[in-house]
Each structure stands twice: as structure tokens, then as C-alpha cells.
Specification:
With 260 residues, the chain is α+β, with helices and mostly antiparallel strands. The chain contains 5 helices and 13 strands.
Length: 260
């Protein structure tokens, strides 16, 4: 895979990786993706739950069936048929949270095979060993243009979209020995790729299907109201109007979908 040279993540993290010997220590990182779709697009959000030592790097690959999304023929217009991808630079950055942040590798999109690779890292100049920790830490998002007019091919009960994205996510970069690439590295110098990372599948629901039951009705309006009052997890499909916030505007968006 072609790498950008502006600020190489591998070079920055080499001091952390050296000494680990590539041996995974006890760790628990769950990597998963959730998507929300409309008639025109599907946005996939990639998250990690970091349940043990914080991470200084994370590498994830989202493979997709390129025949399912393209609005144009990828053979004749690969640029026009490509998805767009943005990494989360609020949590993953090199520099300082409120000051200078140094550019590093953007998400890599390969339209020939149908895959998007995120290589994320964090080195905070004010706290170099802090890493990233916590639940539902966003790695980034990928936006696909939909070429289908029908309901996406997914499991109605679970939202599983293996028809589009396969059975699971995967490691961002995989290389044979001796050039093994460390995707997931913790602040305790553990390389977690082989034993410390779980990759469930990708689930998707229509925007406005706030409770994820496959139908947009009054129960979804109630689910948004409950979230606004009580808090909880803001799933992407709760964001009916796709503005990045779950609030009263989404309740109104759901009502509009129900009545129109």
C-alpha cells in the first residue's frame, strides 16, 4: 500500500513497538462498524472499544462489494465511483489537542479491489504515553453513494450487512514476515493484532429507524425523545437528518418520514 511521507506513523511509533518483540499481551479491543443510509448514500462509522491499556495506534480495513454502491461504472470512471473517507482527528492526532497537529496518513481507498484502510495514531506532545482509551472511540467514517433504489441487502433483525462488507472488518495492513506490520499497539508496548482484537461485522439501518427494528414509526420518535432526556448511546441511525447530533430536529425528521 502506498504510504504518505509527510509524517510517517510507522516512524513515530517505532520507539513504542521496539521491545515488544511482536508478542501480544493481554488486551481487549473491539472493532466494529455501524452505518446509516438514505436513498442516496450510506455512511459507515468505524469505532473501537478500548477495554484495557490505551492505544497509540489502530489499523482497520473495511472491505466492500464495489458493485453495490457505484453511481457510475467503476471501469470507466474510478474517481467518480470512489467512496470518501475521513479519519477522526479529535481523538487520533500527532501534536497537541488544542494546538498544532501534524498531518499523517489519510485513509487509503482502493477502488480496484474495494477497500478502505484507516491507520490511526496518537502522540500527544503534552502527554506522549497517554494514548486513546474508552468506549466508542471513532476511527473515522466512509461515505458511499448508493446505486440501488431498494432497501439495502441486510438482515432485518440484526442489521448485519455482510452482503456489502463481508463477515467482518480486518486488520489495516497485513504483511508477511519479516516485514510484519503492527496495527494495534498499546501504551504498554503490546502488539495486539493476533490475539487482542475482535472484529464483529457491519450493521446498518435507515436513518430515522432510531430503535433499529427495521420500521420507522412512532416508536422511533419515542426512542429519540428518551435519548434526549436520559442520554445513552447515540447510534448513527438515530441521527435522522445526518447533522451529527441527535436532538429535536431528528424527532421532527422522523415525524416527517412517518407522515410522508
Amino acid at each position: 500500500m502506498k504510504k504518505k511521507t509527510t509524517f510517517g506513523i510507522a516512524a513515530i511509533l517505532s520507539a513504542v513497538i521496539i521491545g515488544s518483540g511482536g508478542t501480544a499481551m493481554a488486551a481487549d479491543v473491539d472493532v466494529y462498524a455501524e452505518g446509516a443510509y438514505t436513498e442516496t448514500n450510506l455512511v459507515i462509522y468505524l469505532y473501537v472499544d478500548i477495554n484495557a491499556d490505551p492505544l497509540v495506534s489502530a489499523g482497520v480495513k473495511l472491505a466492500y462489494d464495489k458493485s453495490r454502491f457505484y453511481p457510475v461504472d467503476p471501469a470507466t470512471d474510478p474517481a467518480g465511483s470512489a467512496p470518501t473517507a475521513i479519519k477522526n482527528e479529535a481523538d487520533w492526532y500527532f501534536g497537541t489537542p488544542d494546538g498544532a497537529k501534524y498531518p499523517y496518513q489519510d485513509p487509503q481507498i482502493n477502488t480496484d479491489v474495494g477497500e478502505v484502510v484507516f491507520i490511526n495514531g496518537k502522540i500527544d506532545e503534552n502527554a506522549p504515553t497517554a494514548g486513546v482509551t474508552g468506549a466508542r472511540k471513532l476511527l473515522g467514517k466512509v461515505t458511499f453513494a448508493r446505486s440501488e433504489n431498494s432497501t439495502p441487502d441486510k438482515d432485518a433483525a440484526t442489521g448485519n450487512a455482510s452482503g456489502y462488507f463481508g463477515v467482518s472488518l480486518g486488520l489495516g495492513v497485513v504483511r508477511p514476515a519479516p516485514d510484519v506490520y503492527a496495527n494495534f499497539v498499546s501504551t504498554s508496548e503490546a502488539v495486539l493484532d493476533l490475539t487482542g482484537v475482535a472484529f464483529p461485522g457491519v450493521k446498518i439501518y435507515e436513518r430515522g429507524d432510531a430503535n433499529g427494528d427495521g420500521v420507522i414509526n412512532g416508536a422511533d420518535r419515542s426512542a429519540v425523545v428518551y435519548y434526549m432526556v436520559n442520554g445513552g448511546v447515540a447510534y448513527p441511525w438515530m441521527d435522522c437528518n445526518a447533522d451529527g447530533i441527535v436532538n429535536g430536529a431528528d424527532r421532527s425528521c422522523i415525524v416527517y418520514k412517518i407522515t410522508h
